[in-house]
Amino acid sequence: MAYEHCICDTSLMAGTKLPSKHVNVKIPADLDNGHIVALGSLADGEKEALVGTKPAANTALKKLALIKAPEVMKDERLKNLGDFYNKKDAIVRAYLFEDGDEFRLTAEGLTGSPAVGNAVEADAGYKLKTAGSATASSTQIGTIIAQEGDYWVVRVG
User: Fold this and answer.
1) CA 124 to CA 78: how far, in whole Å?
2) What does the alpha-carbon distance between residue 138 and residue 136 come to, in Å, rounded to a whole number?
3) pLDDT bucket at 90, cuts 50 / 70 / 90
4) Ordered DSSP codes for the chain
């Protein structure tokens, strides 16, 4: 099923239970949950929110974070998770990547053709890139280990 926006589940990531494994990020564009940002310095006037920027394909893994804000629909006409996105300049939660973490996302969060066994990498943009094998010029985030309905399961590491 195609969705308007990516749907993401981070329930098996360390940041779900360990606050030190997630950060608050001020995003520079409208972004879906399941997109990534490069982490910068503190945002102007903020004490805890970092500036999120568009990542390069080779941005170091420790400088990347996965956007996953709680899905609170401000427009009561929108009822489905696939309608949700985060608006530009919002401060949202983002999860740091740890070896062994697993997250699930729909194909709307990926570029390329997802398949079990594919590498998942940073791309020159906010979406994750999937490829048949790791690309030398990109930061590998993990591997697609399963497909569960509309979701692709990614294991970090």
Assistant:
1) 30
2) 6
3) very high
4) ---SS--EEEEESGGGT-GGGEEEEE-SS-B-TT-EEEEEEEPTT-SSEEEEEPPPTT--GGGEEEE------SSTT--SGGG--BPTT-EEEEEEP-TT-EEEEEGGGEES---TT-EEE--SSSSEEEESS--TTS-EEEEEEEEETTEEEEEE-
For strands 102-106 and 64-67, give the pairing: unpaired
44-63 residues labelled b (16+ CB within 10 A) or e (exposed): eeeeebbbbbbbbeebebeb
Largest CA distance in the chain: 45
The whole-model pTM stands at 0.93
Q: pLDDT tens digits for 26-85?
A: 999 999 999 999 999 999 999 999 999 999 999 999 999 999 998 876 666 656 778 789
In angstroms and rounded to an integer, the radius of gyration of the C-alpha atoms of the chain is 15
